[in-house]
Write a structure and sequence with these properties.
Layout (H helix, E strand, L loop, with lengths): L1 E5 L6 H12 L2 E4 L1 H13 L7 H10 L2 H7 L8 H10 L3 H16 L12 E5 L2 H5 L5 E6 L2 H14 L6 H17 L12 E4 L5 H17 L1
Parallel strand pairs: 1-3, 1-4, 2-3, 4-5
Length: 220
């Protein structure tokens, strides 16, 4: 089974994807990792983020092994990492180069230790519309910018990362703007996606609603 979970930053899709993959014992692919990897590599190589040719070259040479190695860097999940990922993900040629890697995973999903999995849960911005339009179940998770900024702000503080709420809110809104208006694969719900607004929902409530949809699909 293929399950896709799309939505803007800090809407809760990552938490939901991880919970679903654990509950059903499916592999989990955070597609944002590929863009964070490219953005971080650009930073480490002192490349200008506006240099699309450099971003494309890094994308074409990216491997799963190197991506997981980059994930150990403190900046991979930082505000800097998120901002860089959002910028490079807007480049059409970069998205095209990384698309095959993401799509191939659905054909042969595996866990982190290499064991084969019977299903996969995708977490991203366009997994239900572009990466896996054939997915069995599609979700689109959203929440107000203010709620998402508050969540991200608290997450940074819990990790010991210095942050300012107004700066985080501005970054969330800027990322939403880039994601919604990029030329290739703008972020939007798939026509057949189930949409959840998590502004006033708890994680257990969202998970329960999602599992009801998945269970119904499996039963049929």
């Amino acid at each position: 089974m293929i399950i896709t979970i799309d939505g803007p930053a800090a809407a809760g899709k990552g938490t939901l994807a991880a919970s679903i993959s654990k509950k059903y014992n499916y592999a989990y692919f955070d597609t944002g990792m590929v863009y964070r990897a490219v953005g971080l590599e650009m930073h480490l190589q002192n490349k200008d983020l506006s240099d699309q040719a450099a971003a494309l070259q890094i994308s074409q040479n990216l491997t799963f092994e190197h991506m997981h190695e980059l994930a150990k860097n403190p900046d991979f999940r930082s505000a800097l990492g998120g901002k860089n990922a959002s910028i490079v993900s807007a480049y059409p040629e970069v998205r095209k180069a990384l698309l095959k890697m993401q799509q191939d995973f659905a054909q042969n999903p595996v866990f982190a230790d290499g064991r084969p999995a019977k299903g996969v849960v995708y977490d991203g911005r366009d997994t239900g519309t572009v990466v896996c339009p054939q997915a069995d179940v599609k979700f689109f998770i959203t929440a107000s910018p203010e709620v998402r900024a508050e969540r991200r702000y608290k997450e940074f503080l819990q990790k010991g990362i210095s942050a300012n709420y107004e700066d985080v809110l501005a970054d969330v809104k800027a990322r939403d703007e880039r994601d919604a208006n990029r030329a290739t694969a703008p972020m939007k719900p798939a026509a057949d996606a189930v949409i959840f607004d998590t502004s006033t929902l708890t994680i257990p409530e969202v998970l329960q609603k999602a599992c009801e949809v998945i269970d119904e699909k499996q039963n049929h």
